[in-house]
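Let us work through a complete example step by step.
Step 1: write down the sequence.
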Amino acid sequence: MVGQNAAETISLFELLTKGGWFMIPIFLLSMVAVFLFVERLIAISKAGKIDDNFIRTVKDYMIGGNREAAISVCQQEDTPTARMIEKGLKRLGKPIENIEAAIENVGQLELLQLEKRLAIIATIAGVAPMIGFLGTVTGMIRAFFNLSKAGTNIDPGLLAGGIYEAMVTTAAGLAVGIVAYLFYNILVGMVERVVYKMQATSTAFMDVLQEPV
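Step 2: predict the structure and record it as tokens.
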């Protein structure tokens, strides 16, 4: 009865400490994943904010022959899409193919910036469960080692430490891995939406350049 009450009142912190030193890298990985997720969430959200009147304003300045004003509008936007259009505006007067290639090159560079550090989150999603499983293996080894040393005097308490370490590290590693995997997929989805906006806006810009004067 006493053991049952102790088990019922054990705190989450006490439970996590039973996982041993393997909990340290798992905890650090969780902190890194959360930090990178928040940082990328803010950066990608900012990159995806495009004024609905942006391309229309640029078009009006282009029709009026005021290229510098159109470039200034792009610089004020400070988004990947605006930087792509700015590059195209600075190439006006060159063949359409050259302008399109310049915009695509800027788009590729902007995409790399959007995807920056996403690979780290994906790595955490895979590494955290592996560390947890490693803790499971070492915990079970310790449990069986204690059992072998006990001889005929088998005491469940001898196994408790190893089993705690085995179960807690597995659960913690899987939890961090699952959350990091969700973080990664959320960010990838956001990047895809930003890329779609970039492509749609650049296509609209190229259509403007090819409209008959």
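Step 3: interpret the result. The chain has one domain: 11-209.
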